[in-house]
């Protein structure tokens, strides 16, 4: 093993990224986790204006002040979180924010509690920082992160816990009481919460509660990829307690310097503009979720009805066998075990594809299942 590859040991390449590459004329891809919508009109215009006006240079490391002020206002009004714009860093997607948090805060051997099943980056980011991911098995049909279970896994080396609601890959939304209980636990045990809230706005019957509402001891990670269908513009943000911001900046300054200027312009326009496009997108996701849920139910496939994000995580038995059979039938899905040991026997369907395609995909799945 070459010396420079030491940190990369134990980190595998993403099995979801691999699914992006599966192509075929008749293939329906239910493996992809990005909204199939356009960015808001106001954002398009802001990008054109930015180009026209030469807004293509470095920005302040933390991001332009106007955007950070708009984010601070959003956090105050929507999340009941009061953070100064100076305690906000605009990032290259939520991905950079997660990477920055783990690189800056985790020392070799530190333990970080992560949801299992959970977004792949959590495990990888903790390992890249030479920390130790500790999976918290999500419980029951609702994939609940049970505060008692969390408490039982906290040890003397526990440095942080990552929360993700609404969740990728399960679509589950945390209950207010559980979020509050974990926030209180984190304060009591002096561990930091990293709360990944990128699906905050893609939520159906339930309401989103950020742990930042209950404790100062939280880093809130969010982004524009999912809410405003801006995955390729790579723009997100985090807010953290003042004393942590400086540590995080040490990674951000030398890693990316700043988020792309034109993406910052697009994000600002998205936040300040009308939110109708978001509402329409969420309504369409709900329509697709209802279709997929009804079809899976009628096939007798055991599945929880997700309250957020655009994923469904049914129980299918041998998930590798199912994935391969689905692939042969022309449907790309992701095996649940890609998201952690507790994802075994499940698969992840994304419904970020058209209603018609979902219908066709369900017909194909029905044939291989029945
Ligand atoms: N967090 C979760 C839970 C995600 O599902 C994703 C993307 O799929 C991200 C973070 C990364 O988002 P971004 O595009 O903002 O880097």
UniProtKB/TrEMBL annotation:
Any one GO biological process: amino acid metabolic process
Cofactor: pyridoxal 5'-phosphate
The Aminotransferase class I/classII large domain, residue ranges: 26-365
Entry EC number(s): 2.6.1.-
Top-level lineage group: Archaea
Record keywords, A-Z: Aminotransferase, Pyridoxal phosphate, Transferase
Pfam short name (any one): Aminotran_1_2
Keyword Transferase annotated: yes
UniProt xrefs under CDD domains: AAT_like (cd00609)
Claim: Transferase is one of the keywords in the record: yes
Molecular function GO terms recorded: pyridoxal phosphate binding; transaminase activity
InterPro entries, A to Z: Aminotransferase_I/II_large, AspAT/PAT-like, NHTrfase_class1_PyrdxlP-BS, PyrdxlP-dep_Trfase, PyrdxlP-dep_Trfase_major, PyrdxlP-dep_Trfase_small
Family: Belongs to the class-I pyridoxal-phosphate-dependent aminotransferase family.
Record's subunit section: Homodimer.
Record's protein name: Aminotransferase
Organism: Methanothermobacter tenebrarum
């Amino acid at each position: 093993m070459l010396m420079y590859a030491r940190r990369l040991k134990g980190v595998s390449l993403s099995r979801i990224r691999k699914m992006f590459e599966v192509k075929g004329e008749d293939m329906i891809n239910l493996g992809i986790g990005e909204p199939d919508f356009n960015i808001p009109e106001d954002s398009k215009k802001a990008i054109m204006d930015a180009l026209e006006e030469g807004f293509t240079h470095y920005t302040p490391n933390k991001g332009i002040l106007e955007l950070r002020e708009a984010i601070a206002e959003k956090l105050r009004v929507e999340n009941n979180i009061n953070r100064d714009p100076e305690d906000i860093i605009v990032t290259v997607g939520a991905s950079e924010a997660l990477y920055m948090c783990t690189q800056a805060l985790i020392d070799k051997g530190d333990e970080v509690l992560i949801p299992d099943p959970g977004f792949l980056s959590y495990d990888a980011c903790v390992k890249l920082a030479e920390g130790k991911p500790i999976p918290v098995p999500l419980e029951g049909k609702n994939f609940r992160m049970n505060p008692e279970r969390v408490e039982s896994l906290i040890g003397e080396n526990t440095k942080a816990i990552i929360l993700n609601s609404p969740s990728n890959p399960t679509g589950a939304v945390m209950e207010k009481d559980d979020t509050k209980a974990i926030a209180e636990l984190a304060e009591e045990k002096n561990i930091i919460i990293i709360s990944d809230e990128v699906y905050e706005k893609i939520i159906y019957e339930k309401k989103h509660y950020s742990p930042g509402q209950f404790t100062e001891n939280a880093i809130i990670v969010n982004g524009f990829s999912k809410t405003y269908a801006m995955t390729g513009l790579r723009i997100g943000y985090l807010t953290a307690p003042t004393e942590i911001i400086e540590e995080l900046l040490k990674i951000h300054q030398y890693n990316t310097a700043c988020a792309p200027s034109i993406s910052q312009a697009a994000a600002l326009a998205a936040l300040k503009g009308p939110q109708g496009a978001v509402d329409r997108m969420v309504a369409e996701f709900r329509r697709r979720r209802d279709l997929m849920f009804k079809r899976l139910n009628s096939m007798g496939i055991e599945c929880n009805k997700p309250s957020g994000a655009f994923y469904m995580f049914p129980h299918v038995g041998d998930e590798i066998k199912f994935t391969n059979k689905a692939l042969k039938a022309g449907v790309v899905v992701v095996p649940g075990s890609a998201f952690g040991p507790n994802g075994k026997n499940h698969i992840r369907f994304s419904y970020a594809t058209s209603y018609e395609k979902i219908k066709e995909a369900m017909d194909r799945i029905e044939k291989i299942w029945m």
